[in-house]
Every structure is written in C-alpha cells, then in structure tokens.
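Need tokens for this chain, all 97 residues.
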Amino acid sequence: MNHQPVSRRTYFLVYLGLLVLLTATVGAAFLDAGWLNPVIALTIAVIKAVLVILFFMHVRASSAIVRIFALLGFFWLGILIFLTMGDYLTRIWLPPV
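Here are the structure tokens for all 97 residues:
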C-alpha cells in the first residue's frame, strides 16, 4: 500500500474549489428558484462531498474495493434521498389534521 503523496498544490486547489462551492451555496440560499432550490442545493452538496471523499479521504489513490464501497455509499444515499423526496412530495395528497 505505497501511495504517491498528494501535493500541497492539489490540496490548495481543492480547498479553493470548496470555498467557491460554499459561496455558491450561500448564493443559492438567497436565490428564489422555486422548486429548483433543493435541486441546486443538493447538487452543490454532492459536488462538495465528492471532492472531500476523493481528495481528503484519499479514495482517489485507494484500491478498487475502497472505491466500490465509497460508490455504494453514494448509491445508498441516493436511495434515501429518493425515498425521502417521495414522502415529502406526496404529503400534499393528505388533508390537514
């Protein structure tokens, strides 16, 4: 398990990318895009999570089994988000209590 060290420049660029995405998240919070607000916020959050997982958790330089389990974690998260959105979007079908 001998990996090449990641350069400081790479960490700095990822850090800058995360800062840009942070400002995009704050800007999206003030943007009135209607039903697109959750989609924009989740897209930005997924991009930030991928950057953290690939570079700071070193999944990019790991073995194939680690990559598979990281991908399966994202797949499971997608299932949970899909089921939660299904519940959230169908709540208007019930009359208020």
